[in-house]
Records
---
Amino acid sequence: MMLLLRKLHLMLYILLLGFFFVISYPLLIFYAWDHQKHYKKLVFIRKWISILAAYGAGIRFKVTYETPINWEEGPYIICPNHTSFMDINAINFLCPVPFSYIGKVELLKNPITRIFFKTIDVVVDRNNKRSAFKALKRGEEILSKGHSLVIFPEGGISDEFPPQLHPFKPGAFRIAATTSAPIIPVVIHNLWEHFWDSGLKFGSKPGTVYISVLRPVHSHDNLSKQEISNLEQQVYHSMLKIWEKESNRHI
C-alpha cells in the first residue's frame, strides 16, 4: 500500500513538472533563440518550474549555512552530492544567482532538461575524452562571464541503496585550478528518502529536505596535479564529515 501511495505521489510530481514546463514553453522557445542575451531569464524560468513542481507535491527545502555566503561575490563552483533527480530542484531552490549545470549527455534525451542543456547548461559524455575536455572549457567560459557553475563531483547517481558519498571525479577541481573560482560544497541530506534516483523504483513522498551549505574552499591557478588531488580530497572529506554526522538525523 505504501509503495502504491509513493507511486501515485511520483505521478503527481511528474504531472506538476510537466504542467509548469508546458505553460512556460512558449517563453522558453522565444528566449532560447538568443540564449546568451536571455541567459538570466532562462535560469529564472528553470528555477521556478522546479520549485513550483516540488512545492506542489509537498516537498520543501530547508537550508543551513556553515558560514554566510555572499552569492554576489562569485562566481562559484557549487559541488553537491547526488542521490536524486530532484537534486536539481534542491540546487535551483538554493542558489539565488544565475548559474549553469554540467551534466551527462543523456539529459539531452529528457524533454524537460533538453532545452536547458541545449542552451544555458553544459553536457558531457564521460566516456569521450574530447567531450569531457570541451565541457571543462565551456565551464571555464561560463565562470569567466561571472556565472556560477554546478557540478555533481560524484559523476552520477550510484545504484547503491541507501546511498553513500562516493569518490569524486576531478573535473570540478581542474576548473577551480584554472579559474581560481571558490568551491562551495553542498550536502543534500535526505532527498533520497523522498525521491531516490529517478523515483521509478520506490516512488516519492512529501516532506522536508535538509541541505547543508559548507564554507567555501578557495583555490588558485597553476596548481600541480597533486595539489588538485589534495583540493579534491579536502572537499570530499569536508562533505563526508557533514554527510555522516547530519544525514541520519533527518531520516
Note: Residues 2-32 form the longest helix (31 residues).
---
Amino acid sequence: MSQTLETPRDRRDQVPDSSRVRGLTLRSVLIGFCFAGLANFWVTWSDYIIHSSTWNLSHFPMVNFILFLLLTVFSAVAGRVFGPRFSLAPSELATVMSMGLVGSVVPTNGFIGYVLGILATPYYLATPENGWGIYFHPYIPDWMAPSNSGDSMRYLFEGLPGGMRIPWQVWIGPLLWWLSFAGGIALVSACIVVCLRKQWTDYERLDYPIIGVGIDMAMRSRAVGWLPEYMHGRIFWGGFAVSCGIVCWNIPGYFMPGIPAFPLLPQWFTFATGFPTIDFHISFFAFAFAFFVNLEALFSTWFFFLLFILQSGVFNRFGYTIGTRGDPWSSLNPAVGWQSWGAMCFIVFWGLWVGRNHIKQVFYQAFRSAQAGRSEEMMSYRIAIFGLVFGLVYVIGFLHHAGMSYKMAIVLISCTLVGYLGVARIVAETGLLYVVVPVTGQSATIYLLGSYGMPPESMTAMVFTYMLVTRGAAMFMPSFTQMGKLADRIPQVRRGLMSALGGAIIAGVVISIVVTFYLGYSQGAYNFNIWVFGLGSQVPFIDTLTKIRTPFSTDWNRLFFFGIGVAVSALLTFLRYRFPGWPLSPIGFPLSTSWPMRRIGFTIFLAWLVKALVMKIGGVVLYRRFQPFALGLVVGWAVGVGISFAVDIIWFPGQGHMIHWY
C-alpha cells in the first residue's frame, strides 16, 4: 500500500531525474546550517519569551516543517524569476530538510533546556530542608556541574545586575564534558542506524511515512506557475482551506474573546471516576500525517490505547498499584507502563533477531574491507562498528568517572539505547509523530537493580543523565533513522550527509546555548515559565533523593508486568506470522500508555476511521486521490500556526496562544 503522495509503490524508490540531482552541494549545506541555527533561535525565543505554540515536540518538528515549506516556495519562485540555476534541486532541498530536522531536536525541551536546567539546579536550589547538600553535593566533582560561586547560577534564574557580564568561565568546563557525553550517545545512535538501515529499508521495507512526506515535497518542488508542483490541484487547496481557515477564523478571537471559535485546545473527557482522561480535540497535524500510516498500525495503536484506558481505570477503581511511576517521563500508571516497556524491549530484540544475518554480514564486511558499505550507507561499516565501540566505551567510562559503578552504567546505557532504538523503529514503521518511551532508561535501571546498597556516587551521577531523556523522544536516533531512508531514496546525498548532520547539531547547540544564556542572564530563567527551567530540572533530584532515603531491592512486581508485555507481544507476533491478515500488530502496544497518546489517541482513531472508509469505498485509487488533501491539511495547518505566531509576536509577546502542541 502506498504511503506517499500520488505515486505508486513501484515508483517510490526511484530517484529524481539526473538533471535535477546535484548531490550534496555547498549551498545546500550552508542553507542547512542556517536552517539549524534559525530553528534553534526561533524555538528558544518562542518558548522562553513569546510563549506561543510548541515547535519541536514531534518527530517532524513544526519549526522545521514551516522553514522547509517556505524554502520550497522560495525555490520555485526563484527558478521562475531568475531561471532554473537559482532553484534548488530535490536533493538540495532534502539535504536542507535533513539538517533542519536534526537541528530542531536541540533547543529547549528537546535537549539543551534539560542540559542547562539540570546543571544549574543542584547548588542554586539546595536548602537545608531538601537535603541536597548532604545527599548530592559531596559526590559532585568540580567538573560535573557549575558552582554557584559569585551567584552565577542565581543570576541565571533571576537576571544579572546592571554592568555584569555572563559568567562563561563557570560553565565552559561542565558544558564541554556533558556535551561530549551527549556526543558519544549521538555517535552510537548514528552508528546503530547505519548498521540497521539496509535491514529496515531493503529487507523489511519499512515505510518511513514521516520523512516520506518531506521527500515527496522535495521531489515535486519544480515550479508550476509560481508555486511548487505539490501545491497544485483543488484537492490540495481544499485541505489547505480547512486547516488554515480554522486557525485564521480563531485569530480575531485573540482580540475579541466573545467571538465563537473552533476548539483547538485540549478537550478532556473521562469514561468514569478513576479512569485516565482523554483529549477529544482533533490535532490536524497528527491527523494528516496519520493518513499516510498503514491501517494495521493505526488500528493497533488506538486499540491498545483503549485497552490501556480500561486497564488503568479498573486498577484505579480497585485500588491496585505497584508504586509510583519513578519519574515524570515514564507512564502514569506503572503497571501498564512496564507492560509497554516489555513490549518495546521485545520489539527491539525481535527485530535484531530477524536481522541477525544482516548484522553478521555488517561485521564480516567491516573487518574484510575498509570501504564495505560506503557506497550504500552514510558511512562505511568499518567506521560504524569502530564508532559504535568507541562511543560505548567512552560513555560508560564517562559515567564511571562521574562516580557511577560499571554495573549501573552498563545497564543504564543499555536500557537507554533499547528505548532509543524502540522509538526509532516505531517511528520508521508507523510514521506516528509523537512516540516516546513508556519507561525511561533511568527508571528501568533503578527498579531492575534496586536502590538498596547503591553507592551514593552512582545515584548522584544518574541524576545528571536525565538530560538524555529529552521528554522520552530518544534524542537524535529517530531523526538519524529518517535520514537513512532519505539517503536511500536520494543516494546522491549519502556521501558527506552524516558530517552535515553532525555540523547541524553543533550549530544548533551553540545557538541554543548562547540565546538561552543571553535571555536567562538578562531576564531571568524563572520568568521563562517553562518546564525545563522549573520542575523539569528539579524532579530528577527530588525523585532520586526519595529512592535514596527509602531504598528498595529489585522490584519484581514491575518485572512481572514487564514479562506480561513480552509475552503478549510474542503472542501477537506469532499470530501475525501464523494467520495472514491478523489485524493486531505489537507495534501499537508500547505507545498505548504514553502521555502523547492521551493527547492524540482520539485523533489516531479518527484517522484510522477515515482512511478505512476511503479504502473500503474506493480502494487504493481513491486513497491516492485523497493524499493531496492530507498534504494540504499539513501545509495549511503550518501556515495557520505561522500566522498565529506572527500575531503573537506583534500583539501578545509573553501571552501567546499555544494552538499547536500535540
Note: The first strand starts at residue 223 and ends at 224.
---
Amino acid sequence: MMGSKFFFLLLRFAGSGLPPSHMRGIGIVGRRVRGFLARRVSPHIGRGVNIERGAYVFPDTVLGDGSGIGANCEICRGLVVGKNVMMEPECLFYSNNHKFDRSKNALRATRKSVRLRWRTMSGRGTG
C-alpha cells in the first residue's frame, strides 16, 4: 500500500509535468510513463490506456483497455470505466451521496461507484 501511495504522488505531480500525449514526437513518452505509474497505483488498469496530464487514478480505479482519462479530470474513488471509453479534459466524477435522517438529525455519506460503460465519451459541459 505504501508503494501505491508513492506512485500516486508521482503520477499526480511528476506526471503533470510530462508532455501531453498529442505532442508530436515526445508525447508518446509522457503517455507511456503516466500509464506505467497508473499501473503501479491500481492493478486494474487495462492495456493501451491514456492518462493525460493532470489526471490520476486511485488504487480502486478500474480502467478498461483502450480507455483514457482526459487532462485535469477529477475522479472519485471506485470509478469503473469500461473498454474504449474516452473522457474529455476537465470531466468531474463524484460518487458521494448524502442521506439525511430527520429523526437523528444526522447527515451520513454513502458511497456508490460511478460506472462508464463500453465505448462511451463524456465531456465537461455536455448535456
Note: The chain is about 25% helix and 20% strand.
